[in-house]
Amino acid sequence: MIWPKAVRERIKTGGDREIIHSYPYRSACPSTVWAELTEKAKEDLFFAGYTNYFLWTQMPDFLGTIRKKAGEGCRVRFLVGDPNGDVTRQREVIEDVALTVSTRIRITLENLAKLTEVDGVEARFSSADDAVNHVSLSVFRFDNEALVTPHLARLVGHDSPLLHLRRIGESGMYSRFSEHAEELWGRGVPIS
Asked: Per residue in 163-182, pLDDT tens?
């Protein structure tokens, strides 16, 4: 081998090259990371979190930013859970917190209602059959980067870990998570 073992252990060589950063909690990822990724996206913003509510509360003028991005030709999509669905009700029992899952979804729906006249913004509920797959994994895509949160058992989203990924190849982690979100989107139900 050309590289000594110590150097090889510090250089990313495989699929882990796609991992830009990892956070033990989604809430540990600075809001500036979310804002910068949103701002620099040119073609695709895909927010496939089950509630997405924190986007509206943690990023300054997120509504204005989404309007601007869509006006610049960026495709913007939101995939959320059904606030009246069985999985939502089950998750509320599991989490047992004051700010319920359905309330968090309704925060997103309230803000999405302010974007109905904006071309380029789409929104869907995940299908009832996919809700259990959606509630357990959030994928937020910004062109060729993504923030991914695998939700842990009884924890709310902000207490679950987060991976910041950059697409490098066709079959890496970015692509696998992205394909998962696209599959859920494909079977999603338009929000009226």
From this structure: 999 999 888 999 999 999 99
| Inter-residue contact 83 to 105 (CB < 8 Å) | yes
CA distance 121 to 185: 14
Residue 62: partners with Cβ closer than 8 Å, 6 or more residues away: 38, 55, 56, 111
Q: Determine the Cα–Cα distance for residues 70 and 114; give it in Å rounded to an integer.
A: 13
Is 48 in contact with 134 (CB distance < 8 Å)? yes
Total length of the chain: 192
List 80's β-bridge partners, or say none.
125
Q: What share of the chain is helix, strand, coil (3-state, %, to 5)?
A: 45, 20, 35
Residue 130 to residue 48: CA distance in whole angstroms = 12
pTM of the full predicted structure? 0.91
Alpha helix (H) ranges present in the chain? Answer: 5-8, 31-40, 53-58, 62-71, 86-95, 101-113, 131-135, 173-186
In terms of phi and psi (left: phi > 0; alpha: psi -120 to 50; beta: otherwise), the region of 52 is left
pLDDT tens for each residue of 71-117: 999 999 999 999 999 999 999 999 888 999 999 999 999 999 999 99
